[in-house]
Amino acid sequence: EAGVVQSPRYKIIEKKQPVAFWCNPISGHNTLYWYLQNLGQGPELLIRYENEEAVDDSQLPKDRFSAERLKGVDSTLKIQPAELGDSAVYLCASSSSSGYYNEQFFGPGTRLTVL
Amino acid sequence: KQEVTQIPAALSVPEGENLVLNCSFTDSAIYNLQWFRQDPGKGLTSLLLIQSSQREQTSGRLNASLDKSSGRSTLYIAASQPGDSATYLCAATGGGNKLTFGTGTQLKVEL
Question: Which one of A43, A56, A109 has the shortest CB-CB distance to B101?
Answer without folding.
Answer: A43
